[in-house]
Amino acid sequence: MSKILLNHVYKYYGKEKQAVVKDFHLEIGEKEFIVFVGPSGCGKSTTLRMIAGLEEISRGEIYIDQVLVNDLPPKDRDIAMVFQNYALYPNMTIYENIAFGLRLRKQPKHEIDTAVKRAARVLGIESFLERRPSQLSGGQRQRVALGRAIVRNPQVFLLDEPLSNLDAKLRVQMRAELIRLHKQLGATTIYVTHDQTEAMTMASRIVVMKDGLIQQVDTPEEVYNNP
Ligand code: ADP
Ligand code: ADP
């Protein structure tokens, strides 16, 4: 439930300093569900990665709840990110996969246990905790990846095409689950997708990007009625 300000943010790559994100300016309110759409290569992931601290900001500032985070390492940001290829640790159990981030942060064991079991309950994966990722279906693995993120009860939730590897039926089901999770947890969410239906059904506002630039920021209705 954090406010995020991206203040004229740029990302340059390479010797020519080619800008892949240009003058990205956006204020995101608490509990918003923002969806980034736009063609492949337009800078959506790079923007998410800068918010998460996985990518340096070339120019501009990012503030989370009025705190400048440009130089804050990822582990010190109250942010959880879920990727498209939700790499789970194959040799760990599901329990250990979900607990991993909390263990890194040296939380007491009983607190970790409570948090893991709560996240597992929310996502309906309690009965798989002793299994390994290879023993789960794609949809179940995607739930585990979400479990790893929500277990920390983050203020900000960044999702980079988290459903794109799932079949159509599961995608619809997980979409409903994400909407429910957002209502329940209230984390400020930024969601990257290619899928118009996902954008329409989930977004409080849609950010349309092209060639590193914001083209439009509006409600789903406005984006599709007045593109
Ligand atoms: P999207 O998520 O919208 O598909 P990305 O943010 O992944 O787009 O990429 C934006 C642009 O930045 C692309 O042209 C991509 O090739 C380029 N890019 C991404 N990462 C790097 C990198 N590490 N070095 C150079 N160029 C990169
Ligand atoms: P210790 O070695 O300190 O006795 P345990 O590894 O037995 O601790 O775990 C303590 C608690 O954590 C247990 O009560 C259990 O609920 C939970 N726990 C630990 N590992 C798992 C696991 N793989 N699956 C489910 N619960 C676990």
TrEMBL record:
Key words of the record: ATP-binding, Nucleotide-binding, Transport
Keyword Nucleotide-binding (UniProt): yes
GO BP annotations listed: carbohydrate transport
Cellular component GO terms, alphabetical: ATP-binding cassette (ABC) transporter complex, substrate-binding subunit-containing
Domain ABC transporter: 4-227
Molecular function terms from GO: ABC-type transporter activity; ATP binding; ATP hydrolysis activity
Keyword Secreted: no
Record protein name field: Sn-glycerol-3-phosphate ABC transporter ATP-binding protein UgpC
Range of the intact protein held here: 1 to 227 of 371
